[in-house]
Amino acid sequence: MSLDTDLWWAVARSEEVTSKKPLSVDIGDQPVVLWRDHHGIARALEDRCPHRRAPLSLGCIRDNGLIQCGYHGWSYDGETGRLKEIPNMKDQQKFPPLYKANAFGVSEQAGFVRVCLNPKAEAPLSAEPKYSYIGTVNVSCSHQEYLDALYDDPALILAIRGVRFSPYIMSELHEEGGMLVMERSCQWHPLHWPSHFVAEFPLTLLTRTHPLTGETHLTLRDDAFNDLLHAVLSPVPAARGVTAVRWRAELGVRRPGLRGAMLRGVNPLTVLSSIDGSKLRTTKPTVSLHGEDLRNALLDAPQDTHDQTVAA
Ligand code: FES
C-alpha cells in the first residue's frame, strides 16, 4: 500500500525501544529498524543494510550508539544514516558515499515512539498522560478493515472488561478538528443470566480517530460523564496485510461495587488478534461507509498532517 510520507506513525511503545537490541517494525511495505543510541535517543533507519541489503535489525547496537550490521560488520549513525565504520579499514581510506542508510524522522512522546518516512517532517505535539496498561497485538486484517471494524462494531476487535458495546450510536460519526469522532451506547455486561434483555445503556464509548493513521483516543464514560477508562490505540499497517496495534490504557474515576471491580481487573482492555468471520458477516457496514465519505472529504480539504495527535 502507498502511504503519505508526511504521516507520523506510532510504531512502538517507548519501553520496546532499547539500546540492547534493535527492534524491527513495518510501516506498510517499508521495513524500519529502531533502537536507542548512547544518549538514549530513539533512532530509525530503513531496515536494510546499504551494503548487501541484510536487515540491520539482525545486527547489534554498539557502545557508541551506532547500529552494526550483523553480516559484514559495517556501522551506521542513526541520525543521518551515514556509514561510520568498516571493520579493518585503514585510516586513510574513505567510505563510498553510496553506502548511506535511509534515515527517518523520529519523535517520542506520551509513551509512543513515532516515525515519519520523511526525515524533515515536523514532529507532532501531544500531552504526556500516564498509562498503567499496555499491549501490542498483530491483528490479522488490513489497516482499513481494522478501522471499519472499529466503526461498525468495536466488539469485532476490542473487549473492555465488564462492558458490552451496543449497536446504538449516540452521535453519528462526524468530523471535529480533523478527527473522526463518534459516540456509542454501551451496557455493563449483565452479571446474571438472561444476559440479552438489559434495556439500560448507562455507558458511552467516545472515539476520536485520525482519518489517515487511524490512531484512536478512546474514552469510556458513565451516565454522570465520569471518565472510567481512557486508551490510545495506534494501528500501523505492516507487511502481508497485518495491522500492528500498540496501545496504552488508564482507568479514570474509581467506580465502586461489582461493576467497578470488573473494570479494575488485571487488564481492562483487550485488542483481539483476529476478527471473528461469522460476526463480521452479519455486521452491517453502515458507519464505516459514512467514515469513508468523511475521510475522502477530509483528504480533499487542505490538511495539516503534523497536527495528528490529540491530547488525552
Ligand atoms: S550486508 Fe551489511 S555490512 Fe555487508
In short:
This protein has 312 residues and is mostly beta strands.
Give the tally of structural domains: 2
Specify Rg, calculated over alpha carbons. Answer: 22 Å
Give the total of beta strands.
19
Q: Briefly note the CATH topology name of the largest domain.
A: Alpha-D-Glucose-1,6-Bisphosphate, Chain A, domain 4
- Give the ordered list of helices and strands: EEEEEEEEEEEHEEEEEEEHEHH
Structural class designation: mainly beta
Q: Quick check: average pLDDT?
A: 86
Notes on the protein architecture:
The structure is a single chain. This protein has 312 residues and is mainly β. It folds into two domains: 8-116, Rieske Iron-sulfur Protein (3-layer Sandwich); 133-305, Alpha-D-Glucose-1,6-Bisphosphate, Chain A, domain 4 (2-Layer Sandwich), CATH 3.30.530. 12% of the residues lie in helices and 36% in strands. The chain is built from four helices and 19 strands. The chain has helices spanning 143-152, 257-263, 277-281, 286-300, and strands at 8-13, 23-27, 30-36, 42-46, 60-61, 67-68, 75-76, 83-85, 105-109, 112-116, 133-139, 158-160, 163-176, 179-188, 203-209, 216-221, 227-237, 243-251, 269-271. The strands form five sheets. It has a seven-stranded antiparallel sheet with strand order 11-18-17-16-15-14-13, with helices on one face. A four-stranded antiparallel sheet has the order 5-6-7-8, with no helix packed on it. A three-stranded antiparallel sheet has the order 1-10-9, with no helix packed on it. Helix 1 crosses helix 4. The longest helix has 15 residues, at 286-300. It is elongated, with a radius of gyration of 22 Å. The model has no long low-confidence stretch (mean pLDDT 86). Bound molecules: FE2/S2 (inorganic) cluster (FES). FE2/S2 (inorganic) cluster binds next to loops.
